[in-house]
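DM between two lab members

TW: hey, do you still have the Potassium transporter entry open?
JB: yeah, one sec
JB: this one, 227 aa:
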Amino acid sequence: MKYIIVGLGNFGASLAKKLTEKGNEVIGIDTDMNRVDVYKEKISHTICMDATDEFTVSGLPLADTDMVIIAIGENKGANVMATALFKNFQVKRLISRAIEPLHEKVLHAIGVDEIVHPEEESAERWAKKLCLKGVVDSFELSDDYSIVEVNLPEKYAGKTIKEIGIRENYNLLVLTTISNSEEKSIIGKTRNITKVQGLAHPNDMLNVDDILVVYGSNDHIKKFLKK
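TW: and the structure you got?
JB:
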């Protein structure tokens, strides 16, 4: 995977390093040359540039980039401007950092694909979430083992936990499932309802859009998601 991370502060730099360590190609961008120098040996590529300048950004390999993460935290104005600029360039997937509720609303209005809150979520957690397709969220137990929320692969919809043989075939334990449904209010507005189903049972039926909460080694989780 190829990533562009704008802003090499604590969160951005940590995320860029972890993604690089996992074998991804990462371009880390910052306006501070000192930061660029500090991380040039730890991130695939580092560039000192202004990510709010349209001409400069147009020179980046945007068409070949899988994901752009705007990690600027100290300057909300620069964060919004950079986010809007990359959105205008129609990058494949755009994630931006939100500092406060109003800032988050502005980012949603721009049309980002996802919001990150570094004060609440670690770079390690996001690195795993970005690297493993299908991971909704994760909790690191150690360097080798995790509890993760994963989207149910479509081919398993309509089958029971026992029928997909997740323990026998992938050596993973399903702890619980989470279902998503829509509910209309009395004024006609629709909202999403998320429900944790309790301790998983082998005969539980799995439905489209269900989320599995599984425990196991990171290698086995990767194998399951690739299948």
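TW: got it. The mean pLDDT is 83. DSSP finds nine helices and eleven strands in the chain.
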